[in-house]
Input
Amino acid sequence: MGSPGDLRVVVHAAVGLDGTTRGFTPDLGTYYGLASTWSEDVTLTGADTILAQEPALRAAEELPGPAPEGPLLAVVDSRRRVTAWQELRAAGFWRDVRRLGAPSGERVDLRSALAGFAAEGAGTVRVDSGGALTGALLAAGLVDEVSLLVHPALGHGPPWTGAATVESSFRLDHDRRLGEGLVWLRYEVR
Ligand SMILES: NC(=O)c1ccc[n+]([C@@H]2O[C@H](COP(=O)([O-])OP(=O)(O)OC[C@H]3O[C@@H](n4cnc5c(N)ncnc54)[C@H](OP(=O)(O)O)[C@@H]3O)[C@@H](O)[C@H]2O)c1
Output
């Protein structure tokens, strides 16, 4: 299995030494600096990741507006929990935003969603997830690469794979020490 067509799906996450994605202060400058590695066509994220950002987006006095050269932001949100669409569109990172959901409210078919991006000409999807969406994608065999920025801290909550039972093996392709105790690891999913 693998992502549809020629599409490449990359998960990029900031993690603690225990593999968690929350409960520590991530080095956001380094994290987003590395995220530009892939110049993705689509940033794929989950509703919970966006909900965690909504208060800050709403509190912003001014937002720069859409980034015409930026990726599409696609949010898996079958339960229509995200409300800050206008602010997301104006946040200055994405050219446009899109909710992924079925009319009857069932869970999003992630393989079909990725096939849809590929059909629209996307070459790379970067996944921004605290774990739940990553775990679902991994469990479905839809991830090509995992990039972990490991922080010298312990966090809390589920690991970067969420609660999913995932059977994958990984080949280390790149490792690098960065800044104050950070380690960047890139794995190809076999
Ligand atoms: N450290 C990091 O790199 C990092 C990155 C991003 C976020 N975060 C943090 O992580 C937290 C959010 O992460 P999270 O793990 O709770 O949520 P998440 O990664 O945002 O994923 C939640 C989404 O996954 C979807 N989903 C889950 N299983 C699915 C399946 N089998 N099929 C289709 N869709 C599925 C759900 O869709 P429905 O809503 O449609 O059910 C939900 O919207 C926040 O606190 C955020 O700040 C950390």
